[in-house]
Amino acid sequence: MCPYGTFAGEGLAMTRLRRGTVLINQAARGVGRDFDAKRITRYLARKGVEAALVAPGSASEATVAAQAAAYRGDDILFVIGGDGSVRDAALGLAGSETALAAVPAGTVNIWAREAGIPKGIRAAIDAHLDGQSVHMDLGRAGEHCFLLMAGVGWDAAVTSRVNPRLKRATGDIAYMVQAAWMAPGLRTRRSRWTTPEADFEDDLAWMVLGNTRLYGGKVHLTPGAVIDDGQLDVIAFCPHGFRETLRLARKVAVGRRDDPRIVHLRTPELAIETPELAVQLDGDYVGETPMTFSADAGALLVSVPAGPLAPIFAREHIDRRPG
Question: Distance between CA atoms of 67 and 298, rounded to whole angstroms?
Fold first, then answer.
């Protein structure tokens, strides 16, 4: 059975011809060996979208392909892959008026969940064709970017050790297995970080800088975050010893953050000065601190389904989709 359903010529073509690009991560978990990408471009043509097809071989090639789509003045860039693929494309589209249209085919697909994009390649494409384009903040981390969140410390250290083959085969279970294996050896680090408003120094285990709310596809670590306020929602866990680590974990698991060992703040920028803390962005390890994190307000145009916007948007938006 075809993994993305039938693309028979259903429905009417759109009233205005649009130009786009379909970018496919062939290594994504949801892209099988029998994936026929040309069927997608033919389907889009019947819908009035003239679309080129690209299959980058690396993250940097994906960013370059997205830049090329923006340079051509494409209306939309469909990205078939996971959160990492979407992030790579976002870096190339930042500041342009080409809408990023995520088509979930990765391990967890958190951005699609947050934005209300349906599961299934055919369903997601149709949602974008009938959808709307709105601006959102883009997280920045040094020379990198993120849509969802940045993680510093323990979670990034775990992410750096996850086996790619196990991740593709088991999804987010691979992270849980690796975390359980590494847990006995994890230690806090005396760390220093600064914001425009204040300086901090504490024994840091783990920090999350959220542009959106859903962490790992399961927990709302930053439940008040929105993606169009020019701010990052930051939560830092600063336990004293292993027992306190377990106590904080239990609190967070039930949605509580009222603890002096949990630092919670909202800021447009945060710099971590302490060296050699692992950093992950949207579930992918990218390097170590020192690093500066910020919210680039309204830098990315994204395609989302029609109708009321998802709760991660703070404001109502005017439909910017041509047609």
Answer: 18
Between CA 112 and CA 263 the distance in angstroms is 28
What is the C-alpha separation between 312 and 209, in angstroms, rounded? 15
Q: Cα(280)–Cα(287) distance, rounded to whole angstroms?
A: 7
- Residue 63: per-residue pLDDT: 97
Count the residues in the chain.
Answer: 323
CA atoms within 13 A on the CB side of 76: 31
The stretch 268-276 carries a mean pLDDT of: 97
Distance CA 244, CA 261 (A): 9
162-173 confidence digits (pLDDT tens): 766 666 666 666
Local confidence band at 187 (pLDDT 50, 70, 90 cut-offs): confident
Contact predicate 207/153, CB 8 Å: yes
DSSP-assigned letters across all residues of 55-115: --SSHHHHHHHHHHHHHHT-SEEEEEE-HHHHHHHHHHHTTSSPEEEEEE-SSS-HHHHHH
Give Cα 130 distance to the centre of its chain: 22
Q: What is the pLDDT of residue 242?
A: 67
Whole-prediction pTM:
0.86
Matching residue, tokens 């299934």? 120
